[in-house]
Amino acid sequence: MSATAPEIHRGLAGVVVDTTEISTVIQETNSLTYRGYPVQELAARRSFEEVAHLLWHGELPDEAELRDFQARERALRPLDRTTAELLTGLPRTCHPMDVLRTAVSFLGAEDPTEDDGSPAANRTKSLTLLAKLPTVVAADHRRRRGLDPISPDPDLGYAENFFHMCFGEVPDPDTVRCFEISLVLYAEHSFNASTFTARVVTSTLSDLYSAVTAAVGALKGPLHGGANEAVMHMLEEIGDPDRAQEWLDGALAAKRKIMGFGHRVYKHGDSRVPIMQTALDRLVARAADPEATRLATLHTALRHAMLQRKGIHPNLDYPAGLAYHLMGFDTSTFTPIFVMSRITGWTAHITEQLAHNTLIRPLASYDGPHQRPVPTALRPA
Ligand SMILES: CC(=O)SCCNC(=O)CCNC(=O)[C@H](O)C(C)(C)COP(=O)(O)OP(=O)(O)OC[C@H]1O[C@@H](n2cnc3c(N)ncnc32)[C@H](O)[C@@H]1OP(=O)(O)O
Ligand SMILES: O=C([O-])CC(=O)C(=O)O
């Protein structure tokens, strides 16, 4: 009697593995909510710090809670000497995501409460990472340009302080707002690959730093967060807006994946793209220079060509990549910026996983060789 072949869900596509109270994509309206609030409204009206509080605590902060949250986050921003020295010792040839992954792992190794998985201890660790990761990213951004790090400024908000630490100055409020919008949009997206990675590690009752280290590794890949960096490389490769259609035809014929397009969940367009695209359009208008105009024209031409050729829409990485370029960040810093935001979603999911934990351990259908005896001697060469 032959057993029925199990149904395989490669890539876990379409598989519902658990419940979550943190966020959801509503397919019918192509929208995204964090704790029930539409992300469009959050991006328009709330700061990134307020959204972090919402994701972690389930509610937007009141005035006193926000003051307390900001004070604690700002106090935790500086790196200690050992961490700073460790980071300067890493090769400049390594990717900034490797620096970030190493930093998270090192911060865990330094924390005497690393193995305390209680909700209170994990709340402190989450805030510590939220506060310190921008300091790591900014110091590394400057190191690659041969510049000394700039200390965090406790008088500045999360987004402003990051510009200050990267460039020694804060740009106009509109640019800061565009950056903050990107942080709000990147903060959380349910069971995406990096968040699921964090949940898998957490499900073994490992510590929060280990889960986040693994999540950074998952986000680095170009099919996930690494796509915002890959978008910029692709635009540089194409160069001339008039080449967009011809380049796309060649890339599709070569079976290349077009970076910043397509999505596992959204099939009719990423709900976050219109908001980020509007923010990008504002940056382009503000820059008012031929280089920004060329890039924006190319960006639009490729989007139209892709829709026409394949019916595939851009995802958030498509407008975010170009926006970060126009803000002056080095291309290899784009995915680390994604981490500075997604740390909120990852840690919210780690907390949720621990609250109702079950070891995550799926099955596989074996199709290797049939059972066979181990030879008693080496085969002759
Ligand atoms: C924040 C984020 O992480 S968003 C995702 C960022 N990643 C990218 O932008 C990388 C480029 N995009 C992709 O590789 C894919 O769209 C993914 C990985 C995001 C989603 O992949 P899946 O859900 O597995 O979609 P899948 O690969 O099944 O795509 C369906 C079809 O569309 C095609 N397709 C999807 N995205 C693309 C793309 N970007 N370029 C070319 N073809 C694409 C696939 O080749 C496939 O065609 P086929 O049916 O002829 O084989
Ligand atoms: O949900 C996904 O698969 C990828 C994504 O858009 C995200 O993580 O923001």
TrEMBL record:
One GO CC term, this protein: cytosol
Active site per the UniProt annotation: 263, 317
InterPro entries reported for this sequence: 2-MeCitrate/Citrate_synth_II (IPR011278), Citrate_synth-like_lrg_a-sub (IPR016142), Citrate_synth-like_sm_a-sub (IPR016143), Citrate_synthase (IPR002020), Citrate_synthase_AS (IPR019810), Citrate_synthase_bac-typ (IPR024176), Citrate_synthase_sf (IPR036969)
Involved pathway(s): Carbohydrate metabolism; tricarboxylic acid cycle
A biological-process GO annotation: tricarboxylic acid cycle
Catalytic activity: oxaloacetate + acetyl-CoA + H2O = citrate + CoA + H(+)
Ranges that cross the membrane: none
Keywords, comma-separated and alphabetical: Acyltransferase, Plasmid, Transferase, Tricarboxylic acid cycle
MF annotations from Gene Ontology: citrate synthase activity
One Pfam family it belongs to: Citrate_synt
NCBIfam families named in the record: cit_synth_II, PRK14033.1
Family of this protein: Belongs to the citrate synthase family.
Name of the protein: Citrate synthase
